[in-house]
Structure formats: structure tokens, C-alpha cells
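Morning run. Coffee first, then this:
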Amino acid sequence: SDIVVMGSYAPLFCNANHKRWPINLINFDSSRAYGLPSYYVQQMFSEHRGDVALPMEVAAPLAASGPKGGAIGVGTWLTQAEFKDIKVTRGGETLFSADFADDTKGWKLLGGGDWKTQDGAFRQSSSRENVRAVVGDRKWTDYTYSLKARKLGGAEGFLILFRVQDDNAKSWWNLGGWGNQRHAIEMGGIVGNEVDGRIETGRWYDIRVELKGDN
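And here it is:
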């Protein structure tokens, strides 16, 4: 409180009959307005500004790093795209190669997308968010994952999944994310160093991810 002079809260107002977020500050309908618990928390902080800083010391052992391996996959976010020549290799050995002769057999489809195989490519035609298809062994480590990808339309680019251990985790290289403005690796809820960049519609991209140990 000695540093923060003012604060804002979002969402501030929410129609009680049309909730899409559970922690709004003030709900209203046609006859009333009332604060939620979050409102009273903010009110308490505004009326009782802290004026004492207590010293604190934390000692913790080094935590083991997360899994060094995992399955692979492809995905999109508000975008339609297709993928082909998907291959996973390690030391000259082919761990996985997709020719889609059996359509989508073996793939775990997540996020309610519209997947189908066409002309040897794996095509996703939905405009939904967080659409993914995962395949492979979650025990795979130290592999090279290569594929070709082409954007067909939509707002962003591709999600290139690797080291997948949890179906709900963001474990991917986000190419053309954030409105097709940036690229970054997202692992364990953390966004790595972002770089400016975009994905062009209709252009095939050669993509490769190399995993070795923690890198």
C-alpha cells in the first residue's frame, strides 16, 4: 500500500442473469445492485491501508524439474489449419510417423474441434479456442519432432504440442499467438521469452522441435 496509489478491478459490473466470470465485483439486475465477496475485500483494503512491513525469510530446497518428456500433438486457437509429415525420431530411430491411412485413429482429440484427414494432411476446420490433437507415448524423451503446418484461416497460427503429460496443460510452442502477433513457448503455465512474429495464411511452414534433457 505504500507503493500502489490506485487500483482497478475487472470485471467490475456483471449482469446477474448473464454470468461468464465467477469473481466479478458488483452484480446487478433490473431492480438491484450488490457487491460480491470480492467487493468487500477491495473495500477492506481501501479503508485499512497497511503501515507495517514485517521481515520475512524463506529457505526452500531446490525443486526437481518437471517431466523431461511426453507425447506430441498439434492444435489451433481461433484458427483453421492443417498439418502433415508429422514425425518423431530419436537417434536415427523413428518413434512415430503419421500417414493418416487410418484417419484419426490413435489421436486423442481435445477441445471439440473439427478434425479430418484429407490428401495426407490432418485438417482442423473449427474456429474454437484451444483445439488440440495429441498422440504418442508420455514417456518419450530426447526426441526430435518435425512436421509441416499451414494456416487456412482465422485469427492466429499453430500450437505445436510437445512434452505433453497432462491433457489440460499448456505445453506447446505457440506460433502466431496473441492475435497473430508473437511466438513463444508455454510450459507449466509460464510463457517463455516472446518474440514478434506472425503466420501467413496459405503458406506451408517446416517446424522442428528438438528435446534434449532439460532443453
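The longest strand covers residues 79-90. Good start to the day.
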